[in-house]
C-alpha cells in the first residue's frame, strides 16, 4: 500500500491499542511497560499534530479496511477532531509521565501497576476512536472502549471507597450506554444507515417528530457522559476517589468526549436547532448548580469536580448559540478547559502529597512551605476562573460577545449567568487558596519532598496552559475555521462522499461493478421516510439487492466485532 | 414492513423488567436489569433490520429473501460488549461483598451529609471558628447509611483501609479532629 497523509488517521487508535496488548503480555516487566507506553503516547502526539496540520486543508477520510463509506466504517479527521486529538494526546502523555513519577516515588505496588498501563492505553485508543469515528455505531464502540477502561481505572486496587464510588459510576455508565444503543437502533430503523455523513443527508427527509426523538435520545446519552446538569450527579462523587492521575485524565477527557459527540451530532445531523432553547436552559442550570456545589465543598478534589460540571455549562452554552462564533468559542473553551482541569487535578495530587490531605480544614500554610507548589496551583486556578489575560478569559469573552450579539432575553440571562458563574468560580478558588495555602497549618506539615518526576509534567502542563494564552490568536482562528467546517453542513459530507458520489473512496470492487443497483438501493430509503413517517426503513422484499454490497456490509460489521474483542480481552 | 408483534412484546417486557431491576439497591440485580435491557436493545436492532429472512452472504437464499446482515453484526458487537461489562460488574459485586458483606450500591457521601444536616437542622455552611472541623468523610460516616447493616461498619472500613494517604500515614489526624484553628 502507499503511504500518504491518510495513513496518519488510524494511527491514534491503532498505536495505543496495539501497545495495550503488548504491555499486557509484558506485565512481568514494568520497565518495558513504561517504555512502551511513553513511546506510544509520544507517537500518538506526533500523529495528532500531523493530523492537525493536514486537516487544516480539508477533512481526511479513511475507509477502514478499504470498504467504501456508507457500507464500511470510516474514520474522519476534520479540524475539530484533530484539535481534540492533539489536546487529549498531550494530556494523556503528561498524565502518564506524572503517574510514572508517582510510581517511582512510591515504589511500585505490583498488583495495580501491571494492569495500569494496558488499561490506560486502551482508554487512549477509545478516546481517539470516539474523536475520529465517522460512524455512529463506531462512536458507540469508542465510547464503550473508553468507558470499560475507565471502570477499571476508577476501581484500581479495589479499596472499599473506590468500589463504593465505582459502583455508582459503573451503573450510570451502563445506563448511558444502553440509551445510546437504543438511540442507534432507532436511528437505523428510521434512516437505514449509521454512517454519519449518510445520516446527515437522510435526516432532513425523516419525519420531524421522529427526528426529534432521535435527537433527544442521543442528547440524553451524551449528556450523561458530558455531565450536563440533571445528569451530572454521578460525577462529583465518583471522580475524587480515584488516584490523582486517573482523576486528572477523567476530568480532562471523558466529559469532553461527551461534549465532542454533542457538537458533532448537533452540527452534522440536527442543524435545525430545535432543541437550542432546551440546551440554553440546561447550560444555565449546569453552570449555576455546578458552581453552587463547588462553593459548598470543603474538599479540594470535590470542589474541582463541581467546577468541572459547572464549566461544562459554558461549552453547552456555545453549542446552543448555534452560530459559527458561538461554536468556535465553545471549541476554544473545550481546549482550554481540558488543559486547565487536568493540570489542576495533577496539582491537587501534589498538594495531597505535600499537605497529607485534600480536606481544606486539614491543609494550610502551603504557600510558605512550598512556594513552587503555590505558583503551580495559582496560575491554572486563575486561568479556570477566567482572569484576564489567560485563556479562560478569552474563551468566556468569545461566548459573551456572541451572546450579547444575539441578544434574545434568554441568551442575556445566560450571559449574566456565565458572568456570575465566573465570579463564583473565583470565589471557590480563592477559598481553596486561602485555606490550603494561607491559613495557619492545623498541624505540622509532614516533611515530604515532592518527587521531581511528578513536578516536571505538572509544570509542563501549567506552562502549556499559559502557552494557550500566548498562541491564543492562531488557536482561536483555528477553532473558528473548525467551527466554519462544522456549521457549513457540506464539507464533512463532501469529504466522505467526494463529488456527491453515493459511496466513499474505497476498494470495494464489487460495489463498482454493480454500481447501478447500488444507486437504487441507496436512493430508496431516502424517499421512504417522507411517505411513511417514522416507519421502519429497510429494503422491501422485492428490492433488487445484490449479494456483493451485502457481503461488504458484513465484513465491515465483523471487523467491528474484532475491533471490540481487543479491548475486551485486554480488560 | 411490519415488525413481528412477538418481538415488540418481548422488547417491552425486557425493558420494563430491566428498568425495575435497575432501580434496586443490589448490584447483582442492577446487573441483571442491565442484561435484560441490553437484550431488549438487541431485539430492537433486529426489528430495525426489517423483515426476517434467510441467511445472508453465504448464498443459500435468493437476494430478495435475505435478512439484513448489518444489524446482526451490530448486535453481535453489542453482545460482546455486554459480556465484557457483565464480567466486570460481577467482579465488582464480589469485591463489594468481600469488603462490606453486601453488594449494594451505597449512598453518595453528599447525600449522607445532606441527610445529617437535614436531621439536625443545622446551617449547611462550615464555621471555621467552630471547634469541630470534621471532614466530609467523617461527617458522612456518622450518618446512618441505608445500606450498611451496622452503624459503625462504614467508619471502620474507611479508617482502616481506604485512605492510605489521608489516614494511614498520619494516624494522629484521622481519628481526632484537630481542634480550634481559627484562620
Automatic annotation (TrEMBL), chain A:
Residues 501-571 are annotated as: Disordered. Keywords: Cell membrane, Membrane, Transmembrane, Transmembrane helix. The keyword Transmembrane helix applies. The keyword Methyltransferase does not apply. Residues 518-529 have a biased composition (Acidic residues). Residues 554-565 have a biased composition (Low complexity). InterPro entries: CPA3_Na-H_Antiporter_D (IPR050586), NADH_UbQ_OxRdtase (IPR003918), ND/Mrp_TM (IPR001750). Residues 133-421 form the NADH:quinone oxidoreductase/Mrp antiporter transmembrane domain. It is a multi-pass membrane protein. It is found in: Cell membrane; Membrane. The chain crosses the membrane at residues 6-27, 34-55, 80-101, 113-131, 137-156, 168-191, 211-235, 242-263, 275-296, 303-323, 329-351, 372-390, 410-433, 454-476. Its main location: membrane. Residues 504-516 have a biased composition (Basic and acidic residues). Pfam families: Proton_antipo_M. Belongs to the CPA3 antiporters (TC 2.A.63) subunit D family. NCBIfam families: PRK12665.1 (NF009308). This is Na+/H+ antiporter subunit D.
TrEMBL record, chain B:
Residues 171-183 have a biased composition (Polar residues). Residues 141-168 have a biased composition (Basic and acidic residues). Keywords: Cell membrane, Membrane, Transmembrane, Transmembrane helix. The chain crosses the membrane at residues 6-23, 30-50, 70-94. It comes from the Bacteria. It holds the Pfam family Oxidored_q2. Its main location: membrane. Gene3D superfamilies: 1.10.287.3510. The keyword Membrane applies. Residues 119-183 are annotated as: Disordered. It is found in: Cell membrane. Residues 124-140 have a biased composition (Acidic residues). PANTHER family: ANTIPORTER SUBUNIT MNHC2-RELATED (PTHR34583). Belongs to the CPA3 antiporters (TC 2.A.63) subunit C family. This is Multisubunit sodium/proton antiporter, MrpC subunit. It comes from Paraoerskovia sediminicola. The lineage of its organism: Bacteria, Bacillati, Actinomycetota, Actinomycetes, Micrococcales.
Amino acid at each position: 500500500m502507499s503511504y500518504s497523509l491518510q495513513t496518519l488517521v488510524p494511527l491514534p487508535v491503532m498505536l495505543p491499542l496495539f501497545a495495550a496488548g503488548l504491555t499486557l503480555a509484558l506485565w512481568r516487566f514494568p520497565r518495558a511497560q513504561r517504555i512502551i507506553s511513553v513511546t506510544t503516547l509520544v507517537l500518538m502526539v506526533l500523529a495528532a499534530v500531523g493530523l492537525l496540520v493536514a486537516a487544516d486543508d480539508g477533512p481526511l477520510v479513511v475507509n477502514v479496511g478499504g470498504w467504501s463509506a456508507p457500507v464500511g466504517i470510516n474514520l474522519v479527521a476534520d479540524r475539530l477532531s484533530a484539535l481534540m486529538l492533539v489536546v487529549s494526546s498531550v494530556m494523556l502523555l503528561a498524565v502518564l509521565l506524572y503517574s510514572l513519577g508517582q510510581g517511582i516515588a512510591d515504589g511500585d505496588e505490583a498488583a495495580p501497576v501491571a494492569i495500569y498501563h494496558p488499561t490506560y492505553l486502551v482508554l487512549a485508543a477509545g478516546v481517539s476512536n470516539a474523536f475520529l469515528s465517522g460512524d455512529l455505531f463506531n462512536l458507540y464502540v469508542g465510547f464503550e472502549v473508553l468507558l470499560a477502561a475507565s471502570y477499571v481505572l476508577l476501581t484500581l486496587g479495589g479499596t472499599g471507597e473506590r468500589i463504593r464510588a465505582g459502583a455508582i459510576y459503573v451503573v450510570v455508565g451502563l445506563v448511558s450506554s444502553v440509551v445510546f444503543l437504543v438511540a442507534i437502533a432507532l436511528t437505523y430503523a428510521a434512516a437505514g444507515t449509521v454512517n454519519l455523513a449518510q445520516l446527515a443527508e437522510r435526516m432532513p427527509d425523516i419525519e420531524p417528530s421522529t427526528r426529534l426523538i432521535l435527537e433527544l435520545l442521543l442528547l440524553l446519552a451524551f449528556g450523561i457522559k458530558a455531565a450536563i446538569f440533571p445528569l451530572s450527579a454521578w460525577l462529583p462523587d465518583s471522580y475524587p476517589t480515584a488516584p490523582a492521575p486517573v482523576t486528572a485524565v477523567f476530568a480532562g477527557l471523558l466529559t469532553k468526549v461527551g461534549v465532542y459527540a454533542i457538537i458533532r451530532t448537533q452540527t452534522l445531523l440536527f442543524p435545525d436547532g430545535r432543541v437550542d432553547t432546551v440546551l440554553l436552559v440546561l447550560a444555565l442550570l449546569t453552570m449555576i448548580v455546578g458552581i453552587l456545589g463547588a462553593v459548598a465543598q470543603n474538599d479540594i478534589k470535590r470542589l474541582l469536580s463541581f467546577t468541572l460540571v459547572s464549566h461544562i455549562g459554558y461549552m453547552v452554552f456555545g453549542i446552543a448559540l448555534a452560530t459559527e462564533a458561538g461554536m468556535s468559542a465553545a471549541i476554544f473553551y473545550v481546549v482550554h478547559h481540558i488543559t486547565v482541569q487536568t493540570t489542576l487535578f495533577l496539582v491537587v495530587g501534589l498538594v495531597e502529597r505535600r499537605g497529607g490531605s485534600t480536606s481544606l480544614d486539614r491543609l494550610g500554610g502551603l504557600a510558605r512551605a512550598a512556594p513552587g507548589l503555590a505558583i503551580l496551583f495559582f496560575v491554572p486556578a486563575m486561568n479556570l476562573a477566567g482572569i484576564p489575560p489567560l485563556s479562560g478569559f478569552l474563551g468566556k469573552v468569545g461566548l459573551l460577545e456572541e451572546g450579547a450579539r444575539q441578544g434574545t432575553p434568554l441568551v442575556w440571562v445566560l450571559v449574566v449567568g456565565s458572568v456570575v458563574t465566573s465570579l463564583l468560580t473565583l470565589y471557590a478558588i480563592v477559598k481553596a487558596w486561602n485555606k490550603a495555602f494561607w491559613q495557619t497549618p492545623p498541624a505540622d506539615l509532614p516533611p515530604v519532598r515532592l518527587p521531581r518526576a511528578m513536578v516536571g509534567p505538572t509544570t509542563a502542563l501549567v506552562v502549556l496552559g499559559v502557552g494557550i494564552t500566548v498562541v491564543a490568536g492562531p488557536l482561536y482562528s483555528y477553532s473558528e475555521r473548525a467551527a466554519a467546517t462544522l456549521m457549513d453542513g457540506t464539507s464533512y459530507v463532501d469529504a466522505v462522499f467526494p463529488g456527491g458520489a453515493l459511496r466513499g473512496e474505497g476498494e470495494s470492487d464489487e460495489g463498482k461493478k454493480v454500481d447501478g443497483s447500488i444507486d437504487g438501493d441507496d436512493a430508496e430509503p431516502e424517499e421512504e421516510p417522507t411517505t411513511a413517517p417514522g416507519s421502519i426503513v429497510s429494503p422491501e422484499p422485492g428490492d433488487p439487492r445484490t449479494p456483493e454490497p451485502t457481503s461488504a456490509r458484513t465484513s465491515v460489521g465483523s471487523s467491528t466485532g474484532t475491533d471490540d474483542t481487543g479491548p475486551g480481552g485486554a480488560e | 414492513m411490519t415488525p413481528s408483534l412477538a418481538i415488540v412484546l418481548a422488547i417491552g417486557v425486557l425493558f420494563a423488567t430491566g428498568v425495575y431491576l435497575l432501580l434496586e439497591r443490589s448490584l447483582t440485580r442492577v446487573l441483571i436489569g442491565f442484561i435484560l435491557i441490553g437484550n431488549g436493545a438487541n431485539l430492537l436492532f433486529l426489528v430495525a433490520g426489517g423483515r426476517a429472512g434467510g441467511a445472508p452472504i453465504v448464498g443459500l437464499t435468493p437476494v430478495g429473501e435475505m435478512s439484513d446482515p448489518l444489524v446482526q453484526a451490530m448486535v453481535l458487537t453489542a453482545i460482546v460488549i455486554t459480556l465484557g461489562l457483565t464480567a466486570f460488574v460481577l467482579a465488582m459485586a464480589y469485591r463489594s461483598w468481600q469488603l462490606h458483606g453486601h453488594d449494594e450500591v451505597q449512598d453518595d457521601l453528599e447525600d449522607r451529609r445532606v441527610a445529617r444536616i437535614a436531621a439536625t437542622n443545622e446551617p449547611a455552611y462550615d464555621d471555621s471558628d467552630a471547634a469541630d472541623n470534621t471532614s466530609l468523610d467523617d461527617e458522612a460516616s456518622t450518618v446512618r447509611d441505608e445500606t450498611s447493616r451496622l452503624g459503625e461498619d462504614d467508619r471502620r472500613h474507611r479508617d482502616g483501609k481506604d485512605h492510605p494517604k489521608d489516614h494511614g500515614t498520619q494516624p494522629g489526624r484521622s481519628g481526632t479532629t484537630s481542634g480550634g484553628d481559627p484562620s
